[in-house]
Amino acid sequence: MAKKKPEAEQQAAVVNDASLAFFEKYINNPSPTGFEWKGQEIWLDYLKPYIDDHFVDNYGTAVGVINPQAEYKVVIEAHADEISWFVNYITNDGLIYVIRNGGSDHQIAPSKRVNIHTDKGIVKAVFGWPAIHTRLGGEKEEAPTLKNIFLDCGCTSKDEVEALGIHVGCVITYEDEFMVLNNRYYVGRALDNRAGGFMIAEVARLLKQNNVTLPFGLYIVNAVQEEIGLRGAEMIAHRIKPNVAIVTDVTHDTGTPMINKITQGDLACGKGPVISYAPAVQNNLNKLLIESAQKAGIPFQRQASSRSTGTDTDAFAYSNDGVPSALISLPLRYMHTTVEMIHKDDVDNVIRLIYESLLNIKNGQDFRYIK
């Protein structure tokens, strides 16, 4: 069993000013799927004082390790990538059409400012959209679709666009930045799921600052390419071959308009971490999370998933002949928009829940039902 300091001391050390400054920098930095390395550098620089070793795989998944010599391996994991766009077609008059990189929402695109990432640096552009005056002509009004949204970077020809370094395949990210709303919510793009990367880094910080000695190897994993099919987690699970995996991602706050609680469940920001029930979630490990929350007085909510969690939990669970895996989710409003919102208390409590759960995992623990 890990040695720990008194409960009051642990709870005082959650998100502080220095870690919040890192969080803001990390969120504001673009980290699109397949191009995550700048964000991973920022994340690793923050994490290094709290770990014994680290490595990065061929596709950019970053891993910090505590007790790398230990045979029994526990993973805590989040994903680093954000949704984005690719340049797909440049017209002769200098406009740019796009395709998705991940689950980008075409309906929020019109009038958004973006950064086009080129070998020559960032090129600014906007998603243009016809003025309302020109759309009200008695005909049926067109809604935004992938066929009619386009970028305008101020050029009037294809040659002029290409002279800026823009070509088919350049990645595009929104430029919206981090803010705190009503001293209660963190708001920004890509909180799905760089909030997770932040929280697992904070767990490592608390372990170090509280002088906790874990009896197993801890692998703090910030995986790439989740938004296109859990690919980074799939790769790193086979490399690490963990004995246990605790994954954190976001889930929907279902209390906002146009969401059906009958199908999506009843979950809300500010009411605590969400513990999931799904085929990929190992029941005995899940019980350990619940007991850890109850023992530490951490509020939590519950969510059921029909077939899969849709998170990196699935990739870890079904790797290496089956890895006991569980999911702790952070409630979030307005997923896959530039104004994703998470509650400050939930962030603190996800960090605390992962931390307390690690303290309750025994070295060599076997989570099977029948042994």
Automatic annotation (TrEMBL):
<dbReference type="GO" id="GO:0004177">
    <property type="term" value="F:aminopeptidase activity"/>
</dbReference>
<keyword id="KW-0479">Metal-binding</keyword>
<dbReference type="Pfam" id="PF05343">
    <property type="entry name" value="Peptidase_M42"/>
</dbReference>
<dbReference type="GO" id="GO:0006508">
    <property type="term" value="P:proteolysis"/>
</dbReference>
<keyword id="KW-0645">Protease</keyword>
<dbReference type="InterPro" id="IPR051464">
    <property type="entry name" value="Peptidase_M42_aminopept"/>
</dbReference>
<dbReference type="InterPro" id="IPR023367">
    <property type="entry name" value="Peptidase_M42_dom2"/>
</dbReference>
<feature type="binding site">
    <location>
        <position position="249"/>
    </location>
    <ligand>
        <name>Zn(2+) 1</name>
    </ligand>
</feature>
<protein>
    <submittedName>
        <fullName>Aminopeptidase FrvX</fullName>
    </submittedName>
</protein>
<keyword id="KW-0031">Aminopeptidase</keyword>
<comment type="similarity">
    <text>Belongs to the peptidase M42 family.</text>
</comment>
<dbReference type="GO" id="GO:0046872">
    <property type="term" value="F:metal ion binding"/>
</dbReference>
<feature type="binding site">
    <location>
        <position position="192"/>
    </location>
    <ligand>
        <name>Zn(2+) 2</name>
    </ligand>
</feature>
<feature type="binding site">
    <location>
        <position position="79"/>
    </location>
    <ligand>
        <name>Zn(2+) 1</name>
    </ligand>
</feature>
<keyword id="KW-0378">Hydrolase</keyword>
<dbReference type="InterPro" id="IPR008007">
    <property type="entry name" value="Peptidase_M42"/>
</dbReference>
<feature type="binding site">
    <location>
        <position position="192"/>
    </location>
    <ligand>
        <name>Zn(2+) 1</name>
    </ligand>
</feature>
<feature type="binding site">
    <location>
        <position position="336"/>
    </location>
    <ligand>
        <name>Zn(2+) 2</name>
    </ligand>
</feature>
<feature type="binding site">
    <location>
        <position position="227"/>
    </location>
    <ligand>
        <name>Zn(2+) 2</name>
    </ligand>
</feature>
<feature type="active site" description="Proton acceptor">
    <location>
        <position position="226"/>
    </location>
</feature>
